[in-house]
Structures are given as structure tokens and as C-alpha cells.
Amino acid sequence: MPVRPTQQATFAQIQRGLEANFVKLSRAQEQTATGKRIVRPSDDPVGASLSLAYKRQIAVAERYRTAVDGARVMLDTGSSLLQDAGGLLAEARATLLTAMNGTQSADDRKLLGNSIKLIRDRMLELANARTGNRYLFGGAATSTSPFEETTSAGVKTVRYQGASQSQEVLVGLESRLDVTLPGDEIFSAKARTGTSFAGLTGVANGMSADQGLGYAYLTARHDSTTALALGGGIALAAGGANDTILGVHNFVVDPVTNTARLGAGPDVRLPVAGSPALASVRLTNEHGAEVHLDFSAWNGTAVNGTLSGAGSISLDGTNFTPITLTETDLQLTADGGQTVLHLDTTGMHRAGVELMTFSGTVNVFDVLQGIVDDLENGDGISARELRNRLDVWLGELDRNHENLQIATGELGSLSSRATSLSTSFEDEELAVRGLLSGVEDVDFSQVALEMTRAEQTLQLAQATSSRLLQSSLLNFLR
Amino acid sequence: MSSLGLNIGLKSLLTAQAHLETIGHNVSNATTPGYSRQSLQTSASSPLRLRGLLQGTGVQGDVINRTVDALLQARIKTQVSSLGRIDARLDTLSNIESFLGGASDSGAPALLKKMFQSFSSLSTAPEDSVLRTGAIQSTVNFVSQINSLATRAVELEQNTFQRLQSNVEQVNVLAEKIGALNSQIANGEIGSSTANDLRDARDQAVRELSQFVDVRAVEDARGAVRVLVGGRILVSPTTVESMSVAGDPATGSVELRISGQPVTPSGGALGGLLGMVHEDLPQFRGSVDEFARNLILEANRVHSTGVPTSGSFRVLIASNPLQDRNRDGLVADELLSSAGLPFELRAGDLYVNVVDEASGDITKHQLTIDPQRTTAAQLVSSLNAIAHLSASIDAQGRMQIVADAGKRFDFSPRLDTRPDDVGSFGGGRASLGSAGAEPFVLALGDTLDFSGPAGAFTVTFGAAGFTQIGAATAKELAAALNADPSFAGNSLVASDVAGRLVVQTLGAGASESFQLVGGTAAGALGWSAGTTVSGQNSAVNPQISGVYTGAANGEFIFRPNMDGVIGTTPGLRIEVFDGAGVKLTELDVGPGYTPGDQLDVLSGVRASFGFGTVSASNNDVFKLDVVADSDTSDVLVALGFNSLLVGSDAATLAVNGDLVRDNSLFAASYSGAAGDGGALLDLLQVESRGFASLGGASLDENLADIISGVALQIDSESGARDAEQFLLDGLDTRRDQLSGVNTDEELVRMIEHEQAYNLASQYLRVVNDLMTELMNIL
User: Fold this and answer.
1) Most exposed of A303, A471, B121, B646 (fewest Cβ within 10 Å)?
2) Band of the pLDDT at B749, cuts 50, 70, 90?
């Protein structure tokens, strides 16, 4: 069919052309005004769905990053506090070593005890530290103070009342990061290595297992002395009431040197005859067990006798169990059955207050408190017993120090993991933002070019259409 | 002779005049839409026999034709319908796109992101009340955005219905016009003339009608056009029917009718709008509702098993009421699967923890729920059977659970830290357990002979209390024993531990003891006659810690492998079995074990045992429930206990009002500790975890898919529209080329016919001269 142009067709065509050009121009203008290539999703559905996916990715990365940054605050603060704590423990250790030096006097030791008390109080403050309103070392129980001080049987102990799980944040679809460490893992070693005794009374571990935490003072009490073989007119002074021997002990009186000796103890020179001190002569053996003998009726002969002391033992200071010194597995309980102790009493030789520790379970505050108590020497213990006890405390202190260092390391590595996660999320966010911009944002130079082109096309179209519209045969007919 | 010449001249003049008039008509109507150019058909008049010659008699005008191609018209009509349909669809789709707001910062995807961002901030400090308020507020914001989506969708449906109505009115007006033109054309074409302009007008009316609805126009022999829509007559040569719209857009049951009979056009604006109302809009609403449902389901699944910051619950009321489907006036007898609950239940378990306020001890209880068999009343009674809890259904059909004073409850999966409730594992009481688990093969009249502090006595088992004595359960046996007066009188108590019967003294300590003298039932329980059982002073008190990381719910059953003392007896081990009796692991509690130390059992569970004696010959045992998902039946979600979101679709979606009023009810943890955000972390994963019900997509992907779906549709429809427009333009151009007026052409023809007129007038002058000559001769 031959082409036959008509006015109407031509007009319609011109109109459509101009309209199309104008639409292009206004679209370019819309893109420049919003800065976005995709103003409505239907402008480029594939691009729009890509941009939605990128935006999702960015939001997720940002979300993980803020969670990790929140965790970092806790971890970094906790880490630096634990380093402070390590320093405090080192200071305490040095003070303890000074105190163990035999040349210290009681007053010197009291002063040292005071400085350790200050260290303990400072440690407790540190363990109950907060950032914002959140307790750092209570595990997931961040609203209550994790370590609480109580007094039981006259001994100040600190109990952990936080949670055993730590708080976590989400740092990946299925991965979580711990934000804290539970305080009991940091401040008390939990690996039980057995029950140990300071060694004053000669009591030892029984055959059955023990159950308990921390430390306690075992009180071995002397109940009565039985003279198995006295001689030469020697009698028990005050009926044996002030003695501290337990078990069978040998004693020797030598008239030649005028001394008496208990077991392998020092020779005690007897007072001169007639002196009132003869009524109560104190003999001690090599362990410090005492016996008081009345020499006022002594006939001056050599005596080689035996004495036997009977007693009872208590874990909590109020309930005493009599001991026969033949038990190998005597059971003592306390705290309503929480603490169960089995003792071998066959080696006991004297009464006294024995320091018993469940090795490896004493928390750092109780160790320091124990040191303070012993340095103040409230029990009236001898210098050698004090030394023994301080040795025990030193062992526990070292265990706690090691534990603290391990915990510091753990927190440090959590903190560094948090830092590296934060950086990687930041990098991911940045990269995806770049991709998003590539899809979504308008390339200004391209749009400017398109606008110029559209404008030019529009002008050309307008010019040519006006020429076409004007030509008509009528112009040439007269 | 002369009259013929004059006649020829006259006819020539008149014909030329007629030509000129036609040309003038064409030129005046050059811009009239739908005008087809007309031309006068002329032919030579019939010859006369004159003077032995067949003489021609000049020109005559026959008929004025219009140049039109009927097939082209039909094709244009079809094209106009297609375009009309696409235009109507595009309009509605653009509307949807604009209120979805996919690309903007205040649209649904952006608000969903902000909601989960606020949850994530809360997870860094779950006990912070300000962050909690923020989390709840951003949830409210997102929820209202989804609500408004639902409202706008409904409005759009209403809108579309109104457009249908107004389009149908237009259709009726055009139909009337075509009918009128039909009768005018029939009247005007009597004879052999053609009513060209009327036909043009009718063609134009049909074209306009095609824009609204696809029609078939058939012309009959008498020149009238019959218009059919979807097979039904709209305009007949004699009558005009009317079209109407009926139905309710809310239910999607909209229908077009012609004189009462339903008709379904597929093209034109009406076809497009009908398609939208029937398919696209309900589909869109359905996908938004589906998204909302899945969000509610998954968010509530996590939240309902969490523990709020303010602690476990004293009272909990369901948000979804039960409905009386069988109309008997009671809701309690409805099966859970048909009680009108918005979500479906599955057959599964529910674990309830009862917490003692003072000590913090929890006891776990397991309920089995089968929605096809369990009625609401049965659920209430099994909740009531849990010690210290009472459940009921209120007047509105909502279930509620209340704890006794000093007790609280929750549904968290956390582990029971003291699972040995009765002390049947190395406890202080004298304890004798059955050798195997239920069922026990007993017979009627079987006895158990005991000797207790008050003397020897016998318990006989009758039929009462046993569903089937040959398969007696531990619970039934314990109940029967506890009901016996001499049993209780001897301070003995019986219980069911992990399906085993355990008989114990009421008091604890080394002085407590009793003896199983014998009895016919002893063998079925694995007991030997003459067994003496004593208590002890130091109880083992097994303790559990840690978080269960396994994937399935189950139970761990702990039994010692021999008689021995914890931490002392060589070779003493605690064996751990699962509910089916398969041995999972064993724990060494011999001399190398320090009582009180924690041992790793399995999957994050740790156990510690204190100092004490355990006895395998007395069948010491305890059970630990390990729970991965404490509500596998979804009963908490269906009833609406401890929900974060309430509602069942996009319009009814809302945040639980209790949480808005008191934000400390937001359940962030599983353990109840202030800084534990365990449940919150699971809630965070709801956004990006793939769900089978969404075909493996996650919730945010689902929302993005809805938006992209609309965008893709718009894009493809736009492309189709451009193509159809292009085709229509081409057809219109061809029509113009055929039937349009070219002014230059008309001018040329005008000159041609003007010259013809001049020639004719010259000829007449010559004929007149001849006649005058003749007259002069006479």
C-alpha cells in the first residue's frame, strides 16, 4: 500500500514525537533532582530488588556492628580492671613475702596486715565495678552486685551471687560473642586439688572424699589428760585442764640436770625446790604441745613416764565430736551438709586451731582476708604455725593470681575478637554501600549528557515540525 | 438534438458542483476524528439511440462513497481494547506501588529494619528500660505501617469497584448512542444512498466503547450493527440492553451483568479492572496477610517461651479467645484444632516451669498435646494437675493460668538446676526404686509387704485407680500406695520418677529406714524380698548447670553403675540414658572426682554431685528434662500466651497491649537473669532465618519480594503498553493514510473540477450559440 500522508496523521505524529522528547527530558530532570536513578521500583525492577537486597545487607552489618561495639565497651573496661587487679595481687604477694620474713615483729606484721586489708577492699570494689548501670563481673545478672560479703562463724567471707552464664550478643546469623565473663571464673579458682591442713595439730586427710569450698578453721580441743605412767610423786597440774597434748606422749625427768623434757621438746629447767612455780611446770614438745606438771611432791628420782591426752574436734566451733585418735575416716559436716570433711586423727598430737583449706577453691577475697586475720594473730598462734599458715595462703594466692591472668587473657582475646569483628563489619558496610550507590545513584555526568541530548532533540523536532506544518499548496495558489 | 446538448451541459455542471461540494465537505472535516474521506462516484449516463447512432448522454453522479477498510477498523477496535485493559491495570498497580513505599525511608522494609535494629541495641543491655521502650515503640511503628498497607489495599479495592461502576455508566451511554445511530442509519439509507457521516459517527462510538470493554460488532444486511460483549448482546438492531455491576469488593465477588445475566469481558478497562478485583488485588492482600501471619507466628514462637525482665508470671491471660464452633453454648468442649484459634496447633509437647519465688528452684512439667484429640477442657485440667498452678477459661473464652502465692511460672527451656525433686538419687531419705520403667505387669490382688517404723503392713492393689492393671503405670502405683492409710501412717511416700516407682521415707537422715518384706508384686517391680533401705546424713544433691545446645527435646536419666560413695569408691560411675533407654554417656565419680565439681554431660549440660552414697541395688535414679523448644505444639502461640504480637493478618496485627503499657513484660531472656538476652537473640534471628512456610525465604526477603513483584509487573505491563501503543499508532496511521483527508490532494481535485465546471459552462455557451444561429435562420 503506497504511503499517503494526511494532515491529521502528520499532526498526530509530530505531537507524539514532541511528547516523547519532553518525557525524556523531564525524566532526566527527575533523576537529577532526587539524585537517584531509580525513583520508583518500576523504573528498574531488577535494580530495585538488588538495591533492596543491598540495603538489607547494610542494615544487618550495621546492626551486628553496633552490638559488637556495645560489647567492646564492657570487654575493654573489664579487661583493664582485671589488669589493675593483677597489679594489686602482685603487690599483695610482695607484702605477704615480707610478712613471712622471720625478722618481722608483731607490730610490723599488723601494719602489713592492714595494707593487705586495703588491697582486699580495693579488689572487692573492683569485682563489683560497673559501667553505666551494668555490673561487669556478674555474668548475665547485670543488675545485682555479684560479690557479697557475709560473716559466718566470725569469719568474713565473700560469696558470688551472680549468674554462671555470661551475656551474649549476636554477631552473625548463628554466631554469638560473650560480653562478660562470670565473676566466679575470674576471682576464684575452681580446680580442687585436695584438702590441705596447715599442720599444727597433726590431723590429716581421711579416706573418703571431701566436699566443700573455701577454707575453715578446725578447732581441736583438749578435754582431759590421763597419766598413764607417772612416777616419783609427779602429778598433773590443775588436773590437766590447761594442757594441749593429744595422744600418747613420753616425758623424761632427769634429776642430774634438774630438767624435764616432753617428747623431743626442749629441756626445761625445773625451778628450785620450794619455789611456788614447782606447782605448775610447763613442758612443751617439738610440736608445741603443752603439758603442765606439778613437781611439788617430786621425790627427786628420774622418771620416764607417759601421758595421754584426749580431746574433741569441731568444724564450726560449736558442735564438738570426741576423737579416739584411732579414726581413719572421721566425718564432720557443716553448712547443712554443704561441707563434708573426712579426717584421719591417728596422727594428731596436740590441740589448737588448724587452718584447713579446700585447695584451689578459696576465692581471692577470702585468701586476702585469711592473711589479714592471721597477720593480726587473733588466735594467738606461734610464729612457726603462723609461718605454716602463711605458706598455705601463699599457695592459694598464687593459684588465684594465675587464674586471674588466664581470665585477663580470655577477656583480652574476646576484646580483640570484638575489635576485629567491628572492623570487618565496617568494611563490609562500606563495600556494600559502594555497590548500592552504583545501582541506585544517578551518574550525574551521564544524566547531564542525556539532558543535553534530549533538549537538542526536542529543539530539532520542534524546528522541523514547524517547517512541515507550514508547507501547503495553499501558499502557492492565488 | 439541442435539448440533449443542453442536458449534457446541465448534467456536467451539476456533477461538477456535486464534486466540489463533496470536496468542500472533506476539507471542512479534515480534522474531525473518525472522519473518512468521501468521494462522488460518477459514471457515464446510459446512451440514447439518436439518428442511427448510440449517443452518450453525459455524466451522472451515482453515489457518494466513503473510503474505509472494515477489517482495519476491526483490528483497531481490538487494539484499543488491549490498550484500555493495560492502562486500567497499570493505574491500579502504580497505586499499590506508591503506598508500598519500597524505595523510601519510611516504607515497610525500612521500618522492619529499624525494628530489628532496636532489638539489637536492646541485646547489648537487656535490662535497660529506655532501650526496651525504644524496641517496643519501633515495633509499634512497623506494625502500624503494615496496618495501613492493609487499609490502603481495602480502599483500593473499593476504589476499583467505584471505577467499574463509572466505566459501566459510560458503556451504557455509548450503547444508547450506538442504538440511536442504528435506527437513524436504517431510516436514512432507504434506497441506495449511504449515510456516510452517521456511519462514521457509529464507528467512532464503537471505538470508544472498545476502550471500555472488548466488543464484537457485526453489521447485518440492513446496515444495523449488533454489538456483543462476551457473547451477550448489548446493542441489537432494535434494542439496547444495559450493563450493571453487582457484588461486594471486600469478598472479591464482583460481577458484571447485562440485563441481569452475568458476563465476563476479558479486555478493555472493564476487563482490566475485573481482573484486578478478582485476582491481583486479593493476591496482593493475601501476600501481605501471609507476611503478617508468618511474622506473628515466628516472633511469638520465640517470645512466648521467654521470661520477662520483671520475672516469671503470677497470672497470664490468653489474648485469643476460644470460640464455640459447635454452638452448644460451651467453649470448653471444643477440640483445640477446631476452636476458632487463629493459628494451627501441631501434635507436640509443652514444658511448664513452676518457680519457687524464695529459693528460685524450678520444677519442670511436660504436657503432651494433640490438637485432633485434646479439647480445651482437657488442656485446662492437665494444667490444673500441675502442682501450684490453676487454669480456667473465662466468660469471653480466654484461658488463664494463675500460680499459687509464693510461686511463679514460665515456659522457658532453661534447665532445672535441682532435678532430683524427691531425693531419689543418693538423697537423705531411705529410697527404693523399681528396677525397670513402667509398664508393670501386675494382677488384681497383688500385694506389697513393708515393715516400717510403726510395724509391718501389707498394701493390696485393687482395680480402683488402674486403667489396666496388667500395664500399671508408676503414677497409678504411687497414687494407690499413697492412698493406703498404713503406708502414710508409717511415714512412707511413693512417687513416680522417670516412669519408675520410688518408695521413700518421709524424713531424711541415717536413722530413717524401712524394709520391703515381700509381696506378690515385688517381682514385677524387680525387688527382692527382705530388702532393707536406710537413709544417710549427707545427701548427694545432684546439681545441673549450663545451657542445653541440642536440637531436640529429650530427657537424661542418671543411674549409678554400682553401690558406692561419691569421690571415694573406685569404679563408681554415673550412667546417663535417654528416654528410650539408650546409654548416652557415663560420668566418672570415682576417687579422681572431687564432690561438687562440675562434669560435662552432653550438649552443654553440666552436672555436679555432692558427697554421699549412691546405690544401684536400690535403683537410685533421677531424670533431667532437656528442652530445645519448650512449645513444639505451638499452643502458646495459638492461644496467645505471652505474645509479642497479636492478631492474625495484616489488618488485625498489633503489638500486645500489655507490653505497650508495661515494657518490663518484654521477654528477653530464657533464664530470668537481668542481662541475659537469650530469647532476644533468637528473636533477632527471626528476621533473617529462612522459613519453610515462605519457601526458604526469610521475612525481610518475603517483604522485598512483594515489592519487587509489583515493580516487575508494572515494568512488564509498561513495556507491553508501549508496544500496544506503538501498534495502535501504526494502525491509526494506516487508517489515516487510507481514509484521511490530504488537503493538497483535495485542492488539486478542486482545481480539476473547477476547470470541468468552466468547460461545461463553455460548452453550454457554444450550444446556446448554435441555437441562436438556428433561430436567426428562421
Assistant:
1) A471
2) very high
